[in-house]
Amino acid sequence: MVKAIRIHKPGGPDAMVYEDVQLKPPGPGEAYVRHTAIGVNFIDVYFRSGLYKLPALPHGIGMEAAGIVEAVGPGVTEVAFGDRVAYAGGPPGSYAEKRLIPAAQLVKIPKAIDDKTAAAIMLQGMTARYLLKETHPVKKGDTILVHAAAGGMGLWLCQWAKALGCTVIGTTSSEEKAALAKKNGCKFPIIYTQEDFVAKVMEITGGKGVQVVYDGVGKDTFAKSLECLAVRGHLVLFGTASGAPDPFPPTALAAKSASLTRPGLYHYIATRKELLANAKDVFAVVADGTVKIQKPQEYMLKDAARAHKDLAGRKTTGSIILLP
User: Ranges for the Enoyl reductase (ER) domain (predicted)?
Assistant: First the structure.
């Protein structure tokens, strides 16, 4: 038996139950991984609350972790016993001491990256990578807007975009978070609780707007994000932390010949080749210092509910990990 967090019924943070589960030996194509650190992300909140549907109930949640391979099933060639590995993107179930997972979803962790860092960077790092290099490939000289610039995803986007030659504008909720964003590549942090961020974006850009908005907030920012775009600008809605945006007519995009995308990580790591390419880039920018990772905020696995409350309450910056 191993300890795991499972959902018996969707709900708030207290819907997560810390309980014993029985694991089977690994089957064909599977690996048995003992977790050393587990990543916490907003997508976990969506699964916990029922916004995203779990395959069945009760079911584990969590999309990201690092650990050690303790056994492999028949036909596994991707990893071997004793390998340090990490994964992100599902299937849900990382909030556990150990788990079975398809071996093709695992990547080996380079020696330069420790387990806690690996658990904190896979999902956010690969998301930042596809957003900046594939969904909307930014160019040197672009001006971009990043919402929640001091959050885990925001810090990734700000640092990597700056390294790619962009001028980064970012929204934050406090002086403290604005200072953190500025320290990490955001040239123009805007405290949206004190200023109208649309007006400030237009002031910074001389009335032109930005080439792209990376919006993981959703309902609270969506309409104003559209206002911040330049002509032929691109709104990339990659998350809905505040809820889904209100419906709007596609013809509203015509005023600026704007485009709107709602991408998901799964479609950018659908093959083993794509997964390895994404992970390789993420490990590289962390190892060479292009993206500096804050020490993750740590909670014990049994305290996952408190981690979710702090995440939803915007009491956290950077990444969160659970320790088994």
Answer: 11-322
For residues 64 and 90, the answer to whether their CB atoms sit within 8 Å is no
N residues, the chain: 324
Q: Is 149 exposed, middle or buried (0-12, 13-18, 19+ CB in 10 A)?
A: buried
Whole-number Å distance between alpha carbons of 173 and 191: 5
Both structure tokens of 199: 């007006």
The CATH 3.90.180.10 domain(s) of the chain lie at: 2-122+270-323
User: Does the domain at residues 2-122+270-323 carry the CATH identifier 3.90.180.10?
Assistant: yes
Whether the CB-CB separation of 26 and 100 falls below 8 Å is answered with: yes
The region that residue 93 occupies, defined by phi over 0 for left and psi between -120 and 50 for alpha, beta otherwise, is left
Could you say which residues of the chain have pLDDT below 50?
none
User: 215 has which bridge partners?
Assistant: 237
Cβ atoms of 73 and 31 within 8 Å: the answer is: yes
Read off the DSSP letter of residue 147.
Answer: S
If we measure between CA atoms, which residue out of 169, 184, 129, 123 comes closest to residue 317? 184
For the chain, give every residue range classified as CATH 3.40.50.720. Answer: 140-262
pTM above 0.85, yes or no: yes
In angstroms, rounded to a whole number, what is the distance separating the alpha carbons of residues 166 and 67? 35
For domain 140-262, give the CATH number: 3.40.50.720
Condensed to tens digits (0 to 9), the pLDDT of residues 173-212 reads 999 999 999 999 999 999 999 999 999 999 999 999 999 9
Half-sphere exposure of residue 188: CA atoms within 13 angstroms, side-chain side: 18
